[in-house]
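Researcher: Re-running this chain for the archive, since the previous output was lost when a drive failed. Same request as before.
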Amino acid sequence: MVRLTDRSVNLRMEVRRMANEVTTRLGPLTSSDTGEGPVVVLLHATLHDRHDFDAVAPSLSRRQRVIALDWPGHRDCRLPAPTDSLTAAALADALEDVVGALDSPAAAFVGNSVGGFAAARLAITNPERVSRLVLVNTGGFAASALTNLYCRAVGTPAVTRLVLPRLIRSYMRSTSDTDREIEKRALARARTPEGAALAAALWRSFAAPEYDLRPQANRITAPTLIVWGSKDTAIPLRFGRATAAAIPGSRLEVLPTGHLPFSSDPDGFLAIAAPFLATATGLGTAR
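Model: Regenerated structure tokens:
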């Protein structure tokens, strides 16, 4: 027999799953929303989508409410604004809007690549909204004259169309069926005019001064775990060490993967990240 309280919980969960758009200054963001409990928000990389986290989201959602976003222009999420308006800083602005719409206290954030930048900036600008921070092969902490030149070059549309498919294969270092599906989706987007323009705009923004979070990193007060795939060619491990050095009290863990450790080695990732996320909530291990 199902108790009324159980029915109420199930109804709330069903309503949440149906209402999977959040209005932001970049337009509506689509998301999945599963599980009950303290909130964990998953943020993906450029030209990827929320399904990058499919290998770990079910385990996390057993004890937590897991919200996985699609950035504007990615997967099912439309980009009503001009492509040039899609910058890393604009994604971070949109994340602030999402957090403002959440009916929850502080949440934990797991951000990969530009998703890590957005999560880290939120921890700087709105520290009261961030309970835990997991940065996975993150951007935002690796600026230099050389990296800025590289980002501007990749952000040139003609260069983007030429190098992006090769770059995706290189940084993915695909080893699993899940990896190969993710790589296939990212490559398909990269080969469309819209996807190439979107990626070019984001890559150009990686050279902007506001993308460098190091001068403000000491304002991150949320406990921070940094997970890095050591075989990543887009953001090599030396940048993971620089990120750990920049964020006070952070911890760096390294896995022998490419840019998406949570897909390439989900068990290894969960062994590191799930207890860290559970510590913030008083839960046991989320696996």
